Amino acid sequence: MAILTDILNDFTSNIDPKHEDYIVSSPDFFCSFILFYVFSIRVLGPKLMKHRQPYNIKNIVIGYNVIQILVNIYILYECIHLYFTNPNWICIDARNKDDFADISKHYYFLKLFDIVETMFFILRKSYRQASFLHLYHHSGISFAAFVNFRYNYGETTVMIGLLNVGTHVLMYIYYLLTAVDSTWRNNVTIKKGLTSIQIIQLNLMWIYFGLTKITPGCKAMPRYVLYTWTGQNLFMVSLFLRFYFKTYVKKVVSVSKEE
Question: Facing residues of 151 across strands?
């Protein structure tokens, strides 16, 4: 019952005043955006492309990846700057609250922009890449960014952004390489390494937020947010581990048996 009370209080009194007037901070906008995203990828896009040849969008993809690299590096800089100008290495409490507000805004807008990538899969008729893991990951991380943008849960959430954009810098560098030269797609070592990094960053988040909860006086995320995030994170780790085993372990074992 206490958790329900916390949720109701947050939904009415914990809205970040710096972002309250943004149209994109409305739950109606966000829910509509995600529903349209899933509908477009699963139903509308494939239907429109059914009788069309895959589009050659190589230059658009290259430009998109360059933008992603630059924006992720910029937000990574913002996160690192906020973290290292903070007096406490575990419990983040920014001296300038506007810095954190800017990070949460930039990060949220970036997560909405990330969704453009899935549209490329449809235009190239590469439907296999628009997997459940891909859609769930984009929808889930966008929701987390939305909650952080709309509500004020303290600066400890900046660690999620720091780890996420740091990983995405490496990912989009690889995507840029594959867009320029398709032979990079056959480099199993790099793909395996990137998947491992994603799994590691998800587990580092658990460790960090566990430390914030046991640190006296630390304004960590509310219990219900932490419980929800932990469950979602556990599900994400299981999906990535399943993908890793299916793609990099099971295939190797199968090849070894054939030899």
Answer: 15
Q: Residue 240 contacts by C-beta under 8 Å, 6 or more apart in sequence?
A: 133, 195, 198, 199, 202
Of 67, 65, 70, which is closest to residue 181 (Cα–Cα)?
65
Q: Residue 259's pLDDT is what?
A: 43
Task: Give yes or no for a contact between 127 and 121, defined as CB atoms under 8 angstroms apart.
Answer: yes
pLDDT tens-digit readout, 144-161:
899 888 887 777 888 888
Residues in the chain: 259
Extended strands (E) in 97-183? none
Exposed (0-12), middle (13-18) or buried (19+): which is 73, by Cβ within 10 Å? middle
Give me the phi and psi of 219, to 5 degrees please.
Answer: -85, 85
